[in-house]
Design brief:
Elements (H helix, E strand, L loop, with lengths): L7 E3 L6 H18 L28 E7 L5 E9 L3 E4 L1 H4 L4 E7 L2 E4 L1 E5 L4 E5 L20 E6 L6 E17 L3 E13 L14 E3 L5 E9 L4 E5 L23 H10 L3 E7 L2
Parallel strand pairs: 2-10
Antiparallel strand pairs: 1-7, 3-4, 3-15, 4-8, 5-6, 5-15, 7-8, 9-10, 9-12, 10-11, 11-14, 12-13, 13-14
Length: 277
């Protein structure tokens, strides 16, 4: 995950035979770097934060988060299903400028995807012939300060999850590989998988779920020193997530690890692979 924090622009793809070659490279890359998937051991549940007022509207006084997007390198991120016909969502910086992008759907198996960058936000839509049940979303409800969000994906290239408390609305200004200026939500980290420490790189593109298991954002950036995680504001997802989704079990502070593991096992949340020549 980059520490950075509506129309689509299609990205040209190489012809299929390239995937025969690069698929083998990806398999070696994934297997060597991350090994076989494992169950997650969840830490003791954090204390539930007190709920505060509704999240304020955008303001010129919103805190600015400055982000430098580094030159493109091969790497990984997270994506999640938003349509039963093979549509997925991830963060733009995970797949921007990649020569090849794929979803890891099993040990050593990579499915190629086509990429569409969403303008004016850190989002990208992936389309594939491989599909899973879409996650439900709640993009209209007003968010409340102190509410809990669940971040489920592949931090450091391994299964893992984090839980946070909604802190504020910020503004993210991106520079480097591309430029952007968008509203984001700031979360204060409350807890994470017991075997997960350090950077959350690889969690970018993961869904942010509320207590009902509904999408309310997409992980965009982190600030490790401040214990902050930033997510794409819900309004940028409207018009992109149009499927009603298929319900998931409610999430709670004492069982979110097991719920997260189920979403990954069902491949509704998957790992993204970016390959740069």
């Amino acid at each position: 995950m980059a520490r950075r924090p509506n129309g689509y622009q299609a990205k040209a793809k190489k012809r299929f035979p390239d995937w025969i070659i690069y698929g083998l490279v990806l398999i070696v890359f994934v297997w060597t770097a991350y090994g076989v998937e494992q169950d997650i051991v969840v830490a003791d549940p954090p204390d539930s934060p007190e709920l505060g007022p509704l999240l304020p509207s955008d303001s010129p006084r919103d805190e600015i988060v400055l982000v430098d997007v580094a030159p493109r390198q091969s790497g990984t991120g997270t994506a999640f299903s938003i349509d039963k016909n093979g549509m997925w969502l991830t963060a733009r910086h995970v797949v921007d400028s990649c020569n090849h992008v794929g979803l890891r759907v099993g040990s050593g198996r990579i499915v190629p995807v086509k990429t569409q960058i969403v303008q004016n936000s850190d989002l990208a839509v992936l389309t594939s012939e491989w599909s899973r049940k879409p996650l439900p979303a709640d993009l209209e409800s007003q968010r409340q300060l102190g509410e809990v969000g669940y971040f489920i994906g592949y931090p450091q290239g391994k299964p893992g999850e984090v839980v946070g408390s909604l802190l504020a609305r910020n503004r993210m200004k991106v520079r480097g590989r591309y430029t952007n200026d968008e509203a984001i939500l700031a979360w204060s980290e409350l807890g994470r998988s017991r075997n997960l420490s350090g950077s959350l790189g690889g969690l970018s593109g993961a869904p942010v779920l509320d207590k009902d298991g509904e999408i309310i954002g997409v992980v965009s950036a982190e600030s490790p020193r401040r214990g902050r995680i930033y997510s794409v504001a819900p309004r940028y997802l409207r018009g992109i997530i149009t499927s009603p989704g298929i319900g998931v079990e409610p999430l709670s502070l004492d069982s979110y690890g097991q719920s997260a593991d189920k979403l990954r096992r069902d491949r509704r949340v998957a790992q993204v692979i970016c390959l740069v020549k």
